[in-house]
Write a structure and sequence with these properties.
The structure holds three protein chains of three kinds.
Chain A lengths: L7 H4 L1 H27 L2 H20 L4 H19 L3 H25 L4 H9 L7 H30 L1 H6 L4 H23 L4 H15 L3 H26 L3 H19 L17
Helix pairs in contact in A: 2-7, 2-9, 2-10, 2-11, 3-4, 3-5, 3-9, 3-10, 4-5, 4-9, 6-9, 7-9, 10-11, 10-12, 11-12
Chain B lengths: L8 E12 L2 E12 L3 E5 L6 H8 L7 E6 L2 E2 L7 E4 L13 H10 L10 H13 L15 H13 L5 E4 L8 H18 L2 E6 L11 E6 L2 E5 L1 H4 L2 H8 L4 E5 L2 E6 L2 E4 L12
Parallel strand pairs in B: 3-8, 3-9, 6-7, 7-8
Antiparallel strand pairs in B: 1-2, 1-4, 4-5, 9-10, 11-12, 12-13
Helix pairs in contact in B: 2-3, 2-4, 3-4, 4-5
Chain C lengths: L2 H6 L9 H26 L3 H20 L4 H19 L3 H25 L6 H7 L7 H30 L1 H6 L4 H42 L3 H25 L12 H27 L10
The chains are: A mainly alpha, B alpha/beta, C mainly alpha.
Chain lengths: 283, 275, 297
């Protein structure tokens, strides 16, 4: 372990910042991912990342910090996806069209201002350098906000996802809840992007939660496991990126894939006990 | 067993008419549901059953006519009306156990995170026992059979302590034994808790033992009353608007229109694409 | 024709431009083939896979050009491999959704590695992204047309069982239709067509033309046959409009630069779709509902 994890790494301020923001991003991705997988909106998560990227390009065009453009487009995209794609049948098609339209806009922005190319790589695939202490605070606040938002949404979102008709009958504003959820995903994407890159945020959101649901059927455990796996993948990514200089997005997506496939293989072999007495029922 | 005023009306529809997409889906439908009654809402696919359910739930407003629940005009989300939806095709890996699904019935519609308490657990256990689902409470919901999932959904609806239980096609795609089990379970619960039941089905035969009244829907119009009065050739022919025959074949009731079985055949295996 | 129309909207002298006519022809072929295949992609809920396949193919193309190989072969093989891989990893909707996401993320991550390792600048990956519709030569168009025709022929052969499987999968299986096999063949067909499309119009537009026109058509008409025809018509219309607008955009500010054709076509794809959805209630009453997928409860 001595060569893999160099202790000097933790003394470096940029690495500390990267570890902090990365961990917060990973934790948030795990929590958000639980619902993304439950609702079957992995495509939307992927799309929001790329839509955000187009926004960043637009921001550069008008001389504003890319993060603002990213957030604006991610939020706008979340609204568009939530408003347009309600029924399961039309959801993925709508997501595809909004996504390519946003990317088309991005193509326009880049065509009008080609200076963006170098920053683009970092925004697309993530970077561990260049995270300032201020950004750590920003990330922390936003992440906390997202978790708080999800906590408020938890019950009606769960009911609306699993029993949409019952939710409607009980007076839950199903459509609004869906849109609010996507907005949280959009903000979470904006938080996660600086670490992992726009193209790969959804790997932290989708993979660990997908793996978790193969391993357990208790919702609290599934969410906890998603967070744990997400953190694991991120730390592996940060450490290997530090050692080798490879793009962190690649390492994380590789780690996530390994975890997901592992869970898919191991999951069916776990005993799923059906007797009430065998389990300690939790919340 | 609770003492019921059997003359009290819990649900009243008065000449409800509703148009959807230019078509009159419900025409002057009237019905009185009394306390503790078991009513079967029978009709073929597309006859307007689901629409009528949505009107009773307050999700659709009728073009004309009134709906009253417990003597008061209808409001969406009325806790007196419990809804048991059709079972859904859930992914086997859905991270929810049986008890989690049932637990949503307590407070799933409120914002925030559920607070785990002994009282909450006890209520869920009680509901699970009432529907005889305690032995698979911890199983993943996605791996349960249709009948098992249906019972969980009933438990979920019961937790709101409704006065009326609406069941949307609970018998669809169930084998005969499971269907009979569900019917007997629902009837028992209705009796034990003094809950009125409105069960939607396209075949009334499984309900014959327990049904007090039938609401027979055809062409948007409803004929309401005891089975013996309503399910007759003359009455149904008037309802359908063309001659139909009511046959009693080996203990089953069949309604035939020409060569087509309008009610009583096993129609669930044919799937139609329709709007 | 008014001067401002000629300057900013539509200029007939573009037809004397070889590049433009080449683009119109190639684009038209791509649009028609994509729309027909896309009808089933949308019907079967494969939009995510359809898009993911192009992104994964892009990685393959980037990788291939890095190794000095023809980017198009990398693109094509990765597209087909992706389609087969996702198809193998899950046939249940939720499973497939997550599996697609994970595989896509992996492929993009590998793409990141390719770009990182790449020391010299290779233009091929970027052309793959946005397409080079104005630089298509007639030979490529010819090959593409043949491949497209082949895909359409396979589809024509599969038409009825595929429709059956798409609308009522459990019933089809019960009747003995080889659902799994048809699903796989369709995925490969889609991957090949999409790879061909991406070669000309780029990865971005191949998704837009695959999904947009059929999704739009589904809101306008109910019958599959008519729906497919209308989808193809819409696709070709969007493509030609996009090419036209891209041509005249040289006169738009900032002058002399021209706006990318991918911007126009993707915006038109989304725009037509939204309009169709808004108009839908009016159409629905006259034409009946679009075919919907039935799942046994």
């Amino acid at each position: 372990m001595d060569r893999l994890i160099q202790p000097a790494m933790f003394a470096q301020p940029f690495m500390q910042n990267a570890l902090l923001t990365g961990s917060m991003a990973a934790g948030l991705a795990g929590v958000v991912g639980f619902f993304i997988v439950l609702r079957g909106v992995s495509f939307a998560a992927h799309a929001l990342g790329q839509i955000g990227f187009a926004g960043a390009a637009g921001a550069v065009l008008i001389g504003v910090a890319p993060l603002w453009g990213l957030v604006v487009f991610a939020l706008g995209g979340a609204f568009a996806l939530g408003a347009l794609g309600v029924r399961e049948q039309e959801r993925d098609a709508t997501t595809a069209l909004v996504l390519v339209a946003a990317l088309g806009l991005g193509a326009l922005f880049i065509a009008l201002n080609p200076v963006y190319a170098t920053e683009a790589f970092a925004l697309l695939f993530g970077t561990i350098v260049g995270v300032s202490r201020d950004q750590v605070w920003q990330t922390g606040l936003l992440a906390l906000g997202c978790v708080a938002g999800l906590a408020v949404l938890y019950r009606p979102l769960l009911l609306a996802t699993v029993n949409a008709e019952t939710a409607e009958a009980r007076g839950v504003p199903v459509r609004l809840v869906g849109i609010l959820f996507l907005v949280v995903v959009g903000i979470a994407a904006a938080v996660t992007i600086p670490t992992v890159g726009t193209l790969l945020i959804f790997s932290l959101m989708v993979g660990p939660a997908g793996a978790a649901s193969s391993l357990t059927s208790r919702p609290a455990a599934a969410m906890g496991l998603a967070v744990g796996l997400s953190l694991l993948a991120t730390w592996v990514g940060l450490i290997v990126a530090y050692d080798t200089g490879w793009p962190i997005g690649f390492i994380i997506s590789a780690a996530v894939t390994a975890l997901y496939l592992g869970a898919r293989l191991v999951g069916p072999r776990l005993p799923r006990r059906r007797l009430a007495q065998a389990w300690n029922s939790g919340a | 067993m609770p003492i019921l005023d059997h003359d009290a009306t819990v649900l009243r529809l008065d000449r409800v008419t509703l148009q959807l997409g230019g078509r009159e889906v419900l025409r002057e439908v009237s019905l009185d549901l009394r306390a503790g009654e078991f009513v079967g809402l029978i009709g073929a696919n597309g006859a307007g059953k689901t629409t009528l359910l949505r009107v009773i739930l307050g999700l659709l407003r009728p073009g004309s006519g009134t709906v009253e629940v417990l003597g008061r005009p209808l409001r969406r989300g009325n806790r007196a009306v419990g809804y048991v939806p059709q079972k859904q095709q859930l992914d086997p890996d859905t991270p929810l156990r049986g008890r989690d699904l049932v637990g949503l019935g307590i407070d799933g519609h409120r914002w925030g995170v559920p607070f785990p308490s002994a009282k909450r657990r006890a209520r869920i256990e009680e509901a699970l026992r009432a529907v005889d689902a305690a032995h698979y409470a911890d199983a993943p919901v996605g791996r349960l059979s249709g009948g098992e999932q249906q019972r969980l959904l009933i438990a979920q609806a019961l937790l709101a302590e409704p006065k009326i239980l609406l069941l949307d096609e609970p018998l669809a795609n169930l084998d005969i034994r499971s269907a009979n089990e569900v019917v007997r379970l629902v009837a028992r619960i209705g009796r034990e808790r003094g809950v009125s039941v409105l069960l939607v089905a396209h075949d009334m035969n499984p309900l014959m033992e327990v049904m007090d009244t039938v609401v027979y829907l055809a062409e948007g119009r409803a004929a309401v009353g005891p089975v013996a009065e309503v399910v007759r050739t003359e009455v149904l022919s008037r309802l359908y608007g063309y001659p139909v025959d009511v046959l009693h074949v080996r203990g089953r009731i069949l309604v035939l229109g020409g060569s087509e079985v309008l009610m009583g055949g096993h129609a669930d295996h044919e799937v139609h694409a329709h709007g | 024709m008014a001067d401002w129309v000629r300057q900013y909207l539509f200029s007939p002298d573009m037809f004397s431009n070889d590049q433009v006519t080449g683009a119109l022809l190639a684009g038209g072929v791509v649009a028609a083939v994509s729309a027909v295949l896309g009808y089933f992609v949308v019907l079967r809920g494969l939009s995510f896979i359809g898009h993911a396949v192009t992104d994964i193919g892009f990685t393959g193309g980037a990788g291939a050009s890095l190794l000095g190989l023809n980017a198009l072969w990398g693109l094509a093989t990765f597209c087909v491999a992706a389609a087969l891989g996702v198809g193998a990893l899950g046939n249940r909707a939720r499973e497939r959704d997550v599996a697609t996401g994970v595989i896509l993320a992996l492929a993009l991550g590998i793409g990141a590695m390719f770009l990182y390792i790449n020391t010299r600048y290779v233009s091929a990956p970027f052309t793959l992204l946005f397409g080079s519709i104005f630089e298509v030569d007639p030979d490529t168009t010819r090959v593409m047309a043949w491949v497209g025709l082949l895909c359409l022929a396979v589809l024509a052969f599969l038409y009825r069982p595929l429709l059956f499987c798409s609308l009522a999968p459990e019933t089809a299986e019960a009747r003995g239709v080889p659902v799994r096999l048809i699903s796989t063949v369709f995925l490969v067909c889609m991957a090949v067509a999409v790879a061909e499309a991406a070669q000309v119009v780029g990865v971005l537009l191949s998704t837009a033309l695959l999904i947009g026109p059929p999704a739009t058509a589904a809101y306008l008409v109910a019958r599959p046959g008519l729906g497919i025809a209308i989808a193809a018509a819409i696709g070709v219309l969007e493509t030609w409009l996009g090419i036209d607008l891209s041509y005249v955009s040289y006169n738009w500010p900032p002058s002399g630069k021209g706006w990318p054709v991918s911007f126009f076509i993707t915006s038109l794809a989304l725009g037509f779709y939204v309009v169709a959805r808004l108009l839908r209630p009016a159409f629905r009453q006259r034409m009946g509902a679009a075919p919907t997928r039935i799942r046994a409860a």
